[in-house]
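User: Predict the full complex structure for these chains.
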Amino acid sequence: MSKKGFTLWFTGLSGSGKSTLAQFLTPKLRELGVPVEVMDGDEVRENLSKGLGFSKEDRDTNIRRIGYVANLLSRNGVCAMTAAISPYRSVRREVRDGCKAEFVEVFVKCPLEVVEERDTKGLYKKARAGIIKNFTGISDPYEEPEKPEIVVDTAEESIEQSAEKVLEFLRSRSLIG
Amino acid sequence: MSKKGFTLWFTGLSGSGKSTLAQFLTPKLRELGVPVEVMDGDEVRENLSKGLGFSKEDRDTNIRRIGYVANLLSRNGVCAMTAAISPYRSVRREVRDGCKAEFVEVFVKCPLEVVEERDTKGLYKKARAGIIKNFTGISDPYEEPEKPEIVVDTAEESIEQSAEKVLEFLRSRSLIG
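Assistant: Here is the predicted structure of the two-chain assembly.
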């Protein structure tokens, strides 16, 4: 492949807008001739990680698998977008180090109050009620990225603005034309 | 990607020569400009399927994961070579049906007596001794493909001959130039 692949690694709380932003970017990137694959958290848990739970160990295993596939894709010229919460800094660092192609971490920032208010999947309510255990932000930690390549703030920005930030960064690195 | 990706799905007993043939083909395909990724059984168990055992259910899960990744790669112009035993016909059928790009099943045929005599990893001895349970060919079934695209016979052919059969098939389908 002559094309330069890369990984767009979205990280953030459940409901912060990771998958939505990835889906919004997909046709825009394809229009630019970039092959895209999106691996969102739910899809990956179905296809790669069925049976894994939400302990730190299981979460890390899930993230390593996503990282393995993102590396295979991106080093073959694909834009691999991943949209799993990926709450732990250490394993995000590990997958970054394992990626041969460019690794772009996108922190999808949104205050807990806002995602909890949105509660698109009704999960925060269940987490607060103790029905779901180990829920990131409620009963499990989320470690914010220290030096992400991109920060989008979905509580303050429109999706167009967030997407433009990502595209602008990719242009600045000559990853897209 | 303008290139046509495809999956080369090697199946056969442990020690039949799946990974060896995949590794032998890799530089030949790359010389032709084909991007290649090899997922052999051991590597995949480490990266995608740690914790899974060798029951039919766990084997099927392992194969589904390999199929998921092979599909992602091949539909993006990559030649995805997989070299897991993949003993069950039904799940091989399932991954074939799930692959958007061309799916080429290569039956790496070798009589049990021969692979047992080779016993490259010392596994057959352990399986015969009952130290390893559920070992394909000894204490677990291997279902031969009914209509594989290619059959190579590693007991009778040189690796060059087997590789040439594969390349010849790929040329006949215009999958390589």
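The domain at 6-172 of chain B is CATH 3.40.50.300 (Rossmann fold).
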